[in-house]
Amino acid sequence: MTDKASTRRLLYRPAAAFRSSGAFGFTMFSTMVLLVFMFVAVVGLMLPLPGVIKFFGLPFTLAVLFVPLVVSLRGRSAWELGMGARSVSKARCAGETLLRSGPFTMIPDGTPLPGPLATAETFDFSPGDGSAPFGLIRLSSKNFYTLVLRTWPQGGEWNDQPVRDRWVARLGDMLTFLGQSPDFVAATITMETLPESGMRASTIVRSRLKDTAPALARKIIIEATEAVPTAEVRLEARIGLTWRADTMHRKRDATDMGNELARRLGRIRDYCHAAGLRVRPMLEREICAIARRSFSPADELDLEIGLMSGEPMRLRWEDCGPTSASDQHGRLLHDAAQSMSWTMRNEPEAPFDSNVLADLLSPHSDVPRKRVTFVYQPYTPAQATTIVNKDHNDARQAVRTHVGKLPERALVRLDSAEGARQEQARGAGVTRVSMVVTATCPIGADTQKIDTLVTDLGLSAATPLEPARDEQLVTFCAGLGFGVVLSEESTVSDKLAA
To answer: How far apart (Å, rounded) are the C-alpha atoms in residues 255 and 261?
Structure first.
């Protein structure tokens, strides 16, 4: 007899965006600006100014400055959109959206990575305790160090629902553990689908065959590996953990930072194992191969053969970027390929189970090159306590100060804030969650079909997606999981949010 309680799926409450509430449904910053403008308007009426300025000019100027702060489009205020459009226009005029490398260009040697990864460098670090070396990515512009772990996540086969729920809980424990360190920036989990060439299985089988084996047996094994049709798309996964060098010594020298990360690596592995993830640190050559194949998909077969054979590839980080790249409004052109990136528009509005992302993460033959990256930015325990208490107070204040019929959304927000407060008091962490989806295809591919397919997959996963308009390059780099975090690259203050 089956126990229904043991097979019941757990539903997870969607994350809520923290928003400071002010008067009339505005944010607290907007409310303060409104009060200041009202004070300025009253003072203007008291001054001996001409009537045109006093009754028309000053109110019109204040309205022009205030209205864009409360008018929102696609989840952003008009001030955010305007300042973003200005930055994009400035970058295009300066030629920062176009990359050309070669003998007759400004970059005659190598093909460096564009955008935020231009200041990055990679190296293999050997810990002082004698443990195995691992690759590190150093982002000099932000003083970030990123450790990349190769992982083989277990699928849903032969795993009961309680086991999956336990894995989800252990993954949350790992994020809470990482958030206890104030120098931790973000954890990125990347699920990438790639065309299956069959070279990986062929190389492994041929390397394990003995020369003394019978010729007929060798022929049968090779034909069974290479002649039998295989899957069209394969799935790869990796985890990127990014820390900030918070001391002057770590900013100048990577040795101290590397030894500190080596000390934490054992505990991180234990958490990953408890979450059903087998992991190992990736070396510099593997990181460089991922960057190169992402910007130049035509080199993927050669890189795959080089990694499987173990021969030196002589691939430098300075040569992993594209020969040419152009950041356009809705796509990124790079080395005879084009990529389109989407970001999560807002958080899910309804509870969901652990299988909500199955369709989005599964390989799809129409989009063989697809990358889904989840970005987790945990808060420290002190920050988490401040945030949940403030959000609870704001939600309660919004209910108390509302005039007229109380909207249902305000009550839902209050219940959600109360639940988050109780969970945080029991030891749960508070984490910012975002998602980046990138699809890469040849130049002549039907981009409209791919856009529709990816958008539908996002809707099936209860996470509405929107194209990263005029931000394709930085979003593409953030989706790689190599230390580029979109929230850290923002040039507009969060106070201007609607």
So the answer is: 10
Residue 339 DSSP SS3: strand
- How far is it, in rounded angstroms, from Cα 307 to Cα 132? 18
Please, which residues bridge with residue 387 across strands? none
Please give the model's pTM, rounded to 2 decimal places: 0.86
Do the bridges between strand 337-344 and strand 431-442 make them parallel or antiparallel, or are there none, so unpaired? antiparallel
Name the one residue in this structure whose structure tokens are 């990124």.
Answer: 332
Tens of pLDDT, residues 246-267 = 888 888 888 889 999 999 999 9
pLDDT tens digits along 360-412: 888 888 888 999 999 999 988 888 888 888 888 878 877 776 666 777 777 77
- Residue among 374, 376, 13, 391 nearest 179 (CA): 376
DSSP result, 216-233: HHHHHHHHHHHTS---SE
Give CA–CA dist 98/95, Å, rounded. 6
**β 144-153/337-344 pair status:** unpaired
Q: And the tokens for 248?
A: 């002057």
> Do the beta carbons of residue 440 and residue 337 sit within 8 Å?
yes
